[in-house]
Amino acid sequence: MSNLVNSINLNKTPNHIAIIMDGNGRWAKGKGMQRVFGHRNALTAVREAVDGASDIGTKYITLYAFSTENWNRPKLEVDALMSLLISSLKKELPDFQKNGIRVNSIGNIEQLPSNAQKVLLNVINQTKHNTTITLTFALSYGAREEIVNAIKNISKKVVNKEIDIEKIDEKIINNHLYTFNLPDVDLMIRTSGEQRISNFLLWQMAYAELYFTEVLWPDFRKEHLFNAIIDYQNRERRFGKTSEQIDKNE
Ligand code: IPE
Ligand code: IPE
Ligand code: MG
Question: Left (φ > 0), alpha (ψ -120 to 50) or beta: where does 239 sit?
Answer without folding.
Answer: left
